Amino acid sequence: MRNLGERIEDKDIELVLRVREGDLNAFRTLVDLYKDKSLSLAASIVKNPALAEDIVQDVFMKVYKNIGKFKFKSSFATWIYRIVVNTCYSELKRKSNTSLNTENDQTLREIGHAEQPLQLTGEDQRKYIQKAMKMLRPDEALVLRLFYLCEMSLKEIEAITKSNSSKIRVDLYRGRKNLKQQLEQLLGDEIDYLL
Predict the structure, then answer these.
(1) What is the DSSP letter of 159?
(2) What are phi and psi of 42, to 5 degrees?
(3) Measured by CB atoms within 10 angstroms of the end CB, which terminus of the chain is less buried, N or C?
(4) Pick the CATH number of 1-102 from 1.10.1740.10, 3.90.950.10, 1.20.140.10, 1.10.287.1490
(5) How far apart are CA 194 and CA 128, in angstroms?
(6) pLDDT tens digits, one per residue of 5-54
């Protein structure tokens, strides 16, 4: 019996082949499948939601233009996430790092010192986790998103990040530890409502 990952990869291959034949609906389907995770990855690297959206639009233009170069040696997900990572790093080189951080530190301090106990909904939890992720080092945030959000294996993360498995394991460990510390700073004793 085939597992879910194989079915997804088979569907991706079918869609890629249809896009190569000029099927725009197949390309729209690929965009729908990968836009949210691509945006999350981009945001974790550049730390700026508006810039991340621009990058993801650029990524999908690159994907459409270069889909004929996809060689099926890796999964389509690995290929597209590698394009996201490369495009983000290129953009970071082009811009100064100080102009990318649009987060207001005062707002974060105010959130971290709420006077009333928090009643966190799923949406609230997501917002706090995103705020904490923005405070992580880009390589830690990237591997956490690839591993947990995109459900990539260590081998796939190696292909995307061009890092060795030892570094990825260390980044996952440190990323989880630092994420918890950031959440504790934001929420104080209220972290139990989130975890």
Answers:
(1) H
(2) -60, -45
(3) N
(4) 1.10.1740.10
(5) 9
(6) 555 578 899 999 999 999 999 999 999 999 999 998 998 888 888 999 99
